Fold these 3 entries.
Entry 1:
Amino acid sequence: MIKAIIIDDEPLARMIVQEYLQSYPEITVVQECGDGFEGIKAIQQHRPELIFLDIQMPKINGFEMLELVEEPPAVIFTTAFDEYAIRAFENHAVDYLLKPFNKQRFDKAVRKWLDQYMAVQAPMPGDAPVESTTVSSGNKTRELLETASHSPSQQQRVVVKTGGKIKIIPVEDIHYLEASDDYVKIHTHNGAFLKNKTMNYFEQVLDPSQFVRTHRSYILNVQQVTRIDPYEKDSHLCILQSGASVPVSKSGYVKLKAVLGL
């Protein structure tokens, strides 16, 4: 049995996918979800092989939901027209269904995935080893999320998971970011939160007129700066409204002065 989950805030859209899947007795829908919060819990509980995922949803969108799933399953995206998302799908050979889609287009997407899945489950004698669908779909999904993160709609907030709960952090609430092993620690007025991303990732996606990488381990929200103090050698310290101090390297100081117009 192949387990599938449908994640879409539109009941009609979920019903259509359910109806079309009746042609595939090998696929069983183990749960329907109306938002990304439900979707994360369902994926953790059922460990499905395949999900049908809408992008535009309330609370958190489909891309943000996938960021919080440690081992994402294979995904067939369902979405209304979104030029940026579709370009990301096509760049990474991820299948998507553009709403409204018909049974023929649905069948094409599902059969494509089934062919890949069955090839891994039962390789022909003499065939070279095939990368597992879990690994390959996970890699595809991570690459897709890297591309999608540059969409303007994805740059206004950061979604984190903390203590089993999901928190949405608007970028204007971020004071500074700090490298922390394999994570980035996001400091806000409500505390600090860990995100499984890199400093380079945030340097690329955050607005460079608002966020400056002052040090290899720090990115600073310039709106939070109250003063810049000299430190040892050619370095400085930025003192923030919260009272926190953020180191500024020699090269970081040049970038910071340029953004602040000093």
Entry 2:
Amino acid sequence: MFTRHERLKPSYDVVIIGAGGHGLAAAYYLARDHGIRDVAILEKGYLGGGNTGRNTTIIRSNYLTPEGVQFYDESVRLWQDLSQDFDLNLFYSTRGHFTLAHTDAAMRTMRWRAEVNKHFGVASEAVDSQAVRAAIPMMDMTCGGHAPVVGALYHAPGAIARHDAVAWGYGRGADQRGAEIHQNTEVVAIELEDQGSGARVAGVITNRGRIATRKVLCAVAGFTPRLLAMVGLRSPIYIHPLQAMVSEPIKPWLDPIIVSASLHVYVSQSARGELVMGASLDPYELHSTRSTLDFAESLAAHMLDLFPFLSDVKVNRQWAGLADMTPDFAPIMGLTPVRGFYLDSGWGTWGFKATPVCGKTMSYTVAKDADHPLIKGFTFDRFARYALTAEKGAASVGH
């Protein structure tokens, strides 16, 4: 799929730190859309081995803020053509997405989200419990008797895709256009120089040598605070583990994607028949991708509230990723106070679905040294300006 490069070149026009979906997509669009091919993508592990390979693959645009809805809607549009762009089957499958409401207050939020979505042309609607029962007849509408479903937000474009194939497609596309992917290459320092008006990027030090460059894009998810420290910047990002698990493959029976913020559970069924399940963040800061029995027990209990007949189905495996959370549950993207240092971070639990649009907007930002219009609400300085993009109402469960 990719060319193996034995040596780093002395310099590159752009260095991208992180060979996950976002970093690879940025390299792909830098070459395809902007003609910038002298790019090195540095990955301390293996391609797609971070959060790109550790998520639950849900794609949607039913967010709450105007900034979020427009941003993710563009991503959904890009997703629909990716398999053709890559000449690679991504197993992109439109399923429909139900966000369940178990209280009147939650139902009011669903109506609010539906109206914001419709205003921007996104297909979402608030539906009652009868519509939910008709669409998901196998679900216990009482949820074990303690959290009856009163309605839902239905988002028809909701979809899933194969996460590994997305990394492979963007990686191969970037490689074919001249970008170099260097795995097992860890960044240990970033060189800055003072030009009087402030610091700017001068180079990157890796475990395989130094690289001269004037532009560095940081796309490292849970490792963002460590990279920011290398350039003397701080952010309000905090890191929590986010766990998930899958069942053994079973006969296909669940077509839509189901999310319940009250039960802290979300589930879809993969093309292989596995139930892909997740929950909310672990309730403590920890830079670790270990998984826990407590998570599996809690999630299994909530799954049985929804689907009691799954009691004999076995859990196949579980895992964790590092969620880089922000106070307003929106990402941090674009320019930073350090010239030539660009940030694509703060993705928390919603980064996979944004992969294509992040590549498009960050490649524009790096190429033109100006924030793309779609990321104006996600800038680094919004916290200092108290201009937060309050997305928590649409992202409070890890999905």
Entry 3:
Amino acid sequence: MTEVVPFRGIFYNGEKVVGDDVIAPPYDVITPGMREEFYAKSPYNIVKVDAGLKLPGDTDNENKYTRAATHLEGWLSEGVLVRDPAPAYYVCGIEYTMDGEKKTLFGLFGSVRLVELGKGVYPHEATHSKPKKDRLSLTKHTGANTSPIYSLYSGAKADVGAIVREAAKGEPSLQSTDSDGTVHSFWPLRDKDKVEAIRYALSETSIFIADGHHRYETAIEYQKIMREADGDPKEDRPYDFVLMFLADVGDPALAVLPTHRLVTVDAEGMRKSLEEYFDIRELSEGVDVLGAIEGRPQTFGLYDGENNYMLSCKGNCPDWDVDEAFGMLDVVMLHKLIFGKLLELGGWSYEMDVATARRMVDEGEFDAAFFLNPTRVSDVERVALKSLRMPPKSTYFYPKIQTGFVMNDLKTF
């Protein structure tokens, strides 16, 4: 049974720091250059805790994880970070512009009971082991969830959104504007009646992980380690819960962007391999490739270093061994059929920006780029409920939930 409970959050003291100086993007999108910029903004920037620098001479006893723990403890001692005296939820409003339209996504930070994946909390993407090792080391040293998992809830027993929006009418306790111009605002919600109403409304809901699969799997592993160390206690412990940002799966302000694929392949033989199953149409110079494929199912853009093409499935796909719940999803078709059966790849990578992907092909880093339509939220929900996993980077939920607004202590309630 899923539970979303209030918790005694650790957050920045707005009287001592400015949000723009201390809040940062999630660890997995921070480049080395960005990390240096955040370090320079403030000695209290959250990157020092959540995605610290490796330094020459680091050892098992002195490294970015031990420094993260030292920063966290020190900032609490200095009063730069404070801990709520009583359990609360924390509201976040995210105001952004897409295609000229202003939108605001509202959600809340809560502490979610850990359950076996597929038993109320549902993943939708496959994961890699390296990020999980990093997150586990950070959790072991800090004893905290330093960044939230971005999740969507479905089946609430009451209108949580109304309570959240009401709480967001006052002056935020902290605010930060990211590099895209998106404004993130933060409000603690401590009213006991409203806290209890949210707790009841979100009990037994279905929760879908949008972004942060590594963090959830890490939390499960950390729980296992700690329960073994504590002799498998019968009562709840703080590590039986994990920090999440939760938004309503039906919120119209939810946005999912595509992540495109760059491939190393025999470009000359690629077209011959594809044309049996795809209609291949060359696009005129200057045509927007994403605009050309927009809204067309089982359709991809392709750039081979010389021309842009639109690939449309003829409908005579071979037996490519996928569950019907995938519903011929573009990203699954790309990986299972095109990459798995039709082409022999030397490797692939990911890129959000079309122009950057084209440049990387032009400069010889890759031989071709495949462009996709975004995966829909309804597809995520359907696939997750079947306990299936899409390929990594099948979704890019936008905007990213920023790190640093609130942390969850796993040592004590």
